[in-house]
Amino acid sequence: MSKKITLKELALISEFSVSTISKALSDNREISTKTKKKIKALAKQYNYRPNATARSLKSQKTKTIGVIIPNILAHYFAKVLLGIEKEVSKKGYSIITCISDESYEKETKSIELFNSGCVDGFLISLSKETQSNNFYEEINDAIQQGLPVVMFDRTSDKVHCDKVTINDFESAYNATQLLIESNHKKILFVSPISGTNVGNEREKGYRQAIIESFEGAIAPEVLNFTDYPEFTTTLNQYLETNIIDGIVAADELSAIYAMNLAISKGYKVPENLAVIGFTDGILSNNSNPPLSVVDQHETELGKIAAATLIQRIESNETTAPQTIVLPSELILRKSTHSAR
Where is the HTH cro/C1-type domain (predicted)? Predict the structure, then answer.
């Protein structure tokens, strides 16, 4: 590889001024398309790369955004992150990704890092511990200091910033109604994310559908849990003393876990048990039988969240924060009768 040259050296070679070269390489409108192409070709030929540190000091922009997610193993967040990466790359930004692992302390350290000046703004889906305890001081401090922030998926009304989400209440309500309309009555709701706004809204949607449809004749049944060994024991005990014909799960993994455990107890899916989860991921497509799901359009949500943040970073106007609610969609597969 040839040795990198400096901006001044490229100016001597090209016979353009340093200012003209800088403007051409940053696609400034003052420079003609013909000149831009010539300068970019010479920069490539002579292995010139702009100094990112110097450029950020001059512009006071890092062209980097931060992302904080609670769990990288969940396919939902992997798909959101894919959408974010596609959008920021298209706009010429880079990303720094931090994982809170559902920990308020880890989330706080990430916010402090981002607030130190290494990013121009950040995207965040709140940790379970943060939401369960209503700890929002650090994120509100970052916003008050002028750092653009966009929340996605797990959000809070106690934080004044842009948000991108789906209608979790309506999505769970519709999923439950689908089972009820297919003559299922004893429908169990399972969730590993109670304490988050997402988990709480989905549980509320399920409860509302049960209450409206059965008018007290059948009560909502909810199993909230924090870890899967606990869930195995609790669900096993529940199935030994209760007969169910439907499961609505707050996420993808808990739906498949519950379905497999029910099958091991003698249930046949979908003949006498229908199951619906959230997130159209790898697991739901490859489970046996394939899982019916609420598709949250995760990749598109990531793109919109990133675009919203970049617009906020690059805009000179101060406008009121907006909440963008994306539509969800029921994808019916063989874990429900409706897929037939």
Answer: 2-49
